[in-house]
Amino acid sequence: MGCSSCSTSKDGQPRGCKNNGTCGTDGCNKLTVFDWLSNMSLPGGERPFEFVEVRFKNSRKEFFKNGEHLSLSIGDIVATEAQSGHDIGMVTLTGELVRIQMKRKKEDFTVEGFPKVYRKATQRDIDIWQKCRDREEEIKKRSREMAIILKLQMKISDVEFQGDGSKATFYYTAEERVDFRQLIKDMAKAFGIRIEMRQIGYRQEAQRLGGIGSCGRELCCSTWLSDFRSVSTAAARYQQLSLNPQKLAGQCGKLKCCLNYELDVYLDALKDFPSPDTKLLTEKGLAFCQKTDIFKELLWFSYKDEPANWHVLKKDQVNEILEKNKGKEKVPSLEMFAVEQHVDTEKVVFENVVGQDSLTRFDKPKGNRNRNRNKKRNRNNQGRNKNHQNKAKNNNNRKRRKNNA
Q1: In angstroms, rounded to a whole number, what is the distance separating the alpha carbons of residues 212 and 276?
Q2: Which residues contact 353 (CB under 8 A, 6 or more apart)?
Q3: For site-directed labelling of 200, which of 7, 109, 210, 353 has its Cα 20 to 30 A away?
Q4: Tell me, what's the pLDDT at 80?
Q5: Distance of alpha carbon 226 from its chain centroid, rounded?
């Protein structure tokens, strides 16, 4: 749900607010928090919580103390305290929800020396901040060139300026430890600012850069995902996915975060489900599990001597056979328990939204094609005959004129 400035322009192209992720008028922010307590008034004698949440470039959020008791609301641009100078950010949350967020992130608001909000940003502060933001792409390009010249095994993925323009933080990724002391000297001399280098992981890099995933939607890490849980190949095994790195890896090169979304459902379904390594003892021979379907609760087994002949059994039937095998009792055969699968041939397997199954419905029939070809041929033949007739007439007229002369 975007703001009013996210409508289309005159030529039909999306206009947007041109704030590059710092819009504060509605829900088009990255990692926006909805203040569901905004319409509720505080009890009598209670003061508003004096801390606010401020968001800077991309997903960096920090908490600041509103010691001056400024009247702040979501979307206000404020000047905040920094290690040296001040920084410019946007207020993303106020009131009691900030207390809940600080508790969740284990931030102690009773500690002395908590960074403060200086003031609401003036137009001069915003102009300086915007000029610094405009320089980021150029400086990022030049810093990458410097790193290549120095042959450093690192990738500078993003640059973030402090609000007053006195400092820039360079975010980079690297496989190993990098000695960038000479790089810092060269950049400080070229740009005339203080430099801070901060190493981030590949998931954090994808979060800052953003992009479109294989599902066709924006990356979860760049829109709403705030914590990165570890993803292992066991999540793919539980969901019976093929261990193909090209399909399981995201744009960051790591396993996709969405593999964890449905993992709990699969784990609950597998609690009373037989293991894929299950072996059944029958009088006909030893049977191995070839395939499982968790949602339909079906398992496919085949004999050791007949691996191509599969028999479908229900989960309860397999558990029943396993109980008998524990008592050293063999069942006669799998055919006694096999489930017959009926395929409904009358049911339409695929039907599009229009209700038409033919993919060549817009093509012309072959009969019409042949007719059109014959018409073209007849027209061409008629034209050729007329040309021959006209030539013959002209030749006859010439001969007559010569004879008369």
Answers
A1: 36
A2: none
A3: 109
A4: 94
A5: 14
Per the listing, tokens 């087994």 go with 301
Contacts of 130 (CB under 8 A, 6+ apart): none
User: Which three-class secondary structure state does DSSP give residue 361?
Assistant: coil
DSSP structure class, residue 218: B
Q: For 127-200, CATH number?
A: 3.30.300.20
From CA 355, how far away is CA 348, in angstroms rounded? 11
Q: Name the residue among 25, 21, 98, 97 with its Cα closest to residue 64.
A: 98
Closest CA to 27 of 75, 68, 59: 75
Closest CA to 154 of 112, 199, 118: 199
Residues 6+ apart with CB under 8 A from 331: 280, 281, 282, 283, 321, 324, 337
Q: Helix 181-191 crosses helix 123-149 at what angle (to 10 degrees)?
A: 130
Cβ atoms 79, 118 nearer than 8 A: yes
3-state secondary structure of 103: helix
State the DSSP string of 244-293: -HHHHB-TTSSBPGGGGTTHHHHHHHTTTSPPTT-EEEETTEEEEEEEEE
b (16+ CB within 10 A) / e for 360-397: eeeeeeeeeeeeeeeeeeeeeeeeeeeeeeeeeeeeee
User: Which residues of the chain are under the pLDDT cut of 50?
Assistant: 1-2, 4, 12, 20-22, 24-27
Q: Where are the domains of the chain?
A: 31-121, 127-200, 206-269, 273-342
User: Which H helix or E strand runs over 321?
Assistant: helix 315-326
Going by C-alpha positions, the residue among 19, 85, 84 that lies closest to residue 55 is 19
What are the tokens at 124?
Answer: 């001069």
- pTM for the structure as a whole: 0.65
- Cβ atoms of 169 and 158 within 8 Å: the answer is no
CA end-to-end distance (rounded Å), the chain = 94
What type of residue is 278? T
